[in-house]
């Protein structure tokens, strides 16, 4: 992965989107954030709020607390966003500027994630950032 980042991804100003989760032994949140820290000029997106379905629901938040970079975003595509308040907790810990809308389609039904974001206990500005604005920073080519 290191060679791929250095030889291709970084020099092409690409964004790395990776599955990150408690149940993924090779892609733990703390390891992913540590990798992102080595490449502060490369953008990284941690899928599933850097969490996943199994294990502690605070895994991504706990790893984030030790992370000082500004080059990582998280997508909200995890079943844990439903009926748990975890999205709202993540917004309080990591901030509304680093969470991107996601659905994990085709595994899950996208309209359910739309509805969850619409009904989450968030202020309108945070909701808009998550819905689309943060994605234009994580993936600048989307803004063109």
Q: Your description of this structure?
A:
With 144 residues, this protein is of the alpha/beta class. It has a single domain, classed as TIM Barrel, CATH 3.20.20.140. The chain has six helices and four strands, in the order αβαβαβαβαα. It has helices spanning 2-9, 29-38, 59-65, 86-94, 110-119, 124-138; strands at 15-18, 43-46, 72-75, 99-100. Strands 1-2-3-4 form a four-stranded parallel β-sheet. The chain is globular, with a radius of gyration of 14 Å. The relative contact order is 0.14.
Give the N-to-C terminal Cα separation. 28 Å
Structural shape: globular
Radius of gyration, in Å, reads 14 Å
Whole-number total of structural domains: 1
Give the % helix. Answer: 40-55%
Oligomer: single chain
CATH level 1 class label? Alpha Beta
- CATH architecture annotation name: Alpha-Beta Barrel
What is the strand tally?
A: 4
Number of helices: 6
By CATH, the topology is TIM Barrel
H/E series, N to C? Answer: HEHEHEHEHH
* Percentage of β-strand residues: 5-15%
The main sheet comes to: 4 strands, parallel
> Low-confidence segments, ≥5 residues, pLDDT <50?
none
With strands numbered from the N-terminus, the spatial order across the biggest sheet is: 1-2-3-4
Mean pLDDT: 89
Alpha-beta classification: alpha/beta
CATH superfamily: Metal-dependent hydrolases
